[in-house]
Amino acid sequence: MADTHVVLITGGNTGIGYETVKALYGSGIPYVILMGSRSLDKAKDAISKLQSEVSTSKSEVVPVQIDIESDDSISNAVKEVESKYGKLDTLINNAGTLLFNYTLF
Ligand SMILES: NC(=O)c1ccc[n+]([C@@H]2O[C@H](COP(=O)([O-])OP(=O)(O)OC[C@H]3O[C@@H](n4cnc5c(N)ncnc54)[C@H](OP(=O)(O)O)[C@@H]3O)[C@@H](O)[C@H]2O)c1
Prior knowledge:
By secondary structure, this protein is an alpha/beta fold. 38% of the residues lie in helices and 20% in strands. The protein has 3 helices and 4 strands; from the N terminus they run E-H-E-H-E-H-E. A 4-stranded parallel beta sheet has the order 3-2-1-4, with helices on both faces. The mean pLDDT is 95. The structure holds NADP nicotinamide-adenine-dinucleotide phosphate. The site of NADP nicotinamide-adenine-dinucleotide phosphate has 18 residues, from helix 1.
């Protein structure tokens, strides 16, 4: 476990973040995947969905509460990751909202 790559995806409960979690979870490579979410309930629901969509995985997926607009939330997440894993190998800072409309064509 100490050698397992630890990756945190913010906004991991839906959209591109969820698809990133799913790609890692189904990759066949063992990761500790920290599914960042503003709401632990949303993360737990998303993990249930993930486990119904991907039946076998070498990875562990764990919910982590993190709101990137809250310094307290970020500090708490850092403390949680430090105490449980002692490291973070990769941060995928996906969380956010698209604030404008655009069209490709
Ligand atoms: N989709 C596109 O075409 C596109 C294009 C360019 C860039 N992007 C960028 O890619 C990222 C993901 O896009 P998406 O389409 O997957 O968006 P999405 O489906 O709306 O998902 C956004 C995710 O970010 C979370 N989030 C929003 N504000 C947050 C905050 N303050 N702290 C923590 N989490 C927060 C949301 O949490 P809740 O579920 O709690 O709302 C959700 O999990 C965004 O940063 C977006 O700007 C997307």
